[in-house]
Amino acid sequence: MSLVSNSSQIAESIAGNLTALDDFGVRGSLIGVIISAVLYGMAVLISVVCVRLLISSKQIYHSKRRLFALCLHNGLMLVCGTEALVSECWLTVQAIERKLSLEMISAAASLADPGIVSTSSTVRVNLSPIVLPLTVWGADGFLIWRCLVLYKGVRGLHRVMLYVFLGSLALMKLIGGCILYYYTSPSHPSVFPVQLLVFSLTAVGNILVSAVIAARLLYAERLSAAFRSSDSTHTDSPYMRALVICVESSGLIAIVALVGVVATITLPHEYNQIIPMIFPQLCVISPLLIVYRIALGRESHIIRQQDTQVLRTPIAFNSAATLSVNPSHAEHGEAYGTITRNDLHQQHINQDQHAVWHSRA
């Protein structure tokens, strides 16, 4: 009777361990690793293309320090994404091995030694990558830096208010990341409330900074509307293109963070680890997309400037062809060899776009 009693106790204990291990997302971690690997491949591809574009087109960035800083930031974020994927794969393999070992022990529970159960009775697996706060800091720091670049011409009280707002936001993100580091230690395995806090702070922070950047760009767009030609559309403005880049990058992180909040509250523990596993890769992709889009836009702007400069030939006043004027266009000032108001306006638009791309990156 004692042997049967011990066997039943062993089976019940191992069944409880299997349930606890499933609660930590062994099945959901496989989904998270697959999605994270796909996103990591996209991040590597974008990073290679971005660095190649920055290095090959030296005319894009006249400052070598800024070029080095952007390449260094991209490299560090990619390293964090690599570490996140490797740690997720390692933790998932460990969780699967422990689950398989417990299932084998459960199948032979009637013959197992009670000492084996005691060694396996404290199975707890935390699949959140340790670099999650670092990637969040990297993406949010890049967003704050973009905001500072756009508001560098602000003086007085508005500048102080901007610094207080961004400093408070950065301090809030720093404290949230430190709390997440503390509660992911082995002595505090219950990390789900802290994940909820970090996702909430990330979503709110990205929405607020995006609103500040959008307000600045819309203000600049309204000021430059008087210099825009009548045949150009509203979407042709460099300010609107910069606004689209900002909304795309910040909205990506904010939406996924909100999904993480909902998933942490509603989904069971088996699947609410998916968002924390893929979130580091999204934080890596977001600044890479910004740098790539800005560098690509500035390169195309330089090409357009070169194409415009080819058409600027010197005026030969002694040439008969230069002195000839088309009678149908003479009254509008469209004579050959003269610079009209449209030419001056186009030069102003080119200079305005060049200033926007330099201020954005």
Description:
With 361 residues, the chain is mainly alpha-helical. It has helices at 2-23, 26-56, 64-107, 114-119, 132-150, 157-183, 192-224, 238-266, 274-310, 320-323, 327-330, 341-360. The longest helix is centred in the N-terminal third of the chain and has 44 residues, at 64-107.
**Total number of domains:** 1
Beta percentage is under 5%
Mean pLDDT: 69
SSE arrangement, N to C: HHHHHHHHHHHH
List unreliable stretches of 5+ residues.
Answer: 113-125, 299-345
Largest sheet: none
From the N-terminal CA to the C-terminal CA, the straight-line distance is: 77 Å
Q: How would you describe the shape?
A: globular
**Helix percentage range:** over 70%
Total helical elements: 12
Keywords:
about 75% helix; about 350 residues; mainly alpha; single chain
Summarize the structure.
By secondary structure, the protein is mainly alpha-helical.
Task: Compile the SSE list and pairings.
Layout (H helix, E strand, L loop, with lengths): L1 H22 L2 H31 L7 H44 L6 H6 L12 H19 L6 H27 L8 H33 L13 H29 L7 H37 L9 H4 L3 H4 L10 H20 L1
